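= Paired protein data =
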Amino acid sequence: MRSKKLTISEKTCSLRDVLDIIGGKWSMPIIYILSKGKMRFKELERSIEGINTRMLVKELKNMEANGIVSREVFATVPPTVEYTLTAKGEKLLPSIVSLHKWGQEFAV
């Protein structure tokens, strides 16, 4: 049986693009937590063990810029901010769940 050779060109590699969007250490846990529904910033921060405020802000801004997360600000004092997954972000869930299962089986 012959094995097929996989050739990946840097110009056409969509994997590199995907990793630029969700390759951060905290991106997948954020997406997974937000799959449960809308969350305020502090709820999200408390839900992800080990993340600090600065990193959460950075990851959320990156994901918002890439259309993965939606941010809604309410005019209250202090301001209330809620985050949700966009339709684009929700399409990542099956892949993230698959990676999670793979990790449980092989990375433990």
The chain has six helices and three strands.
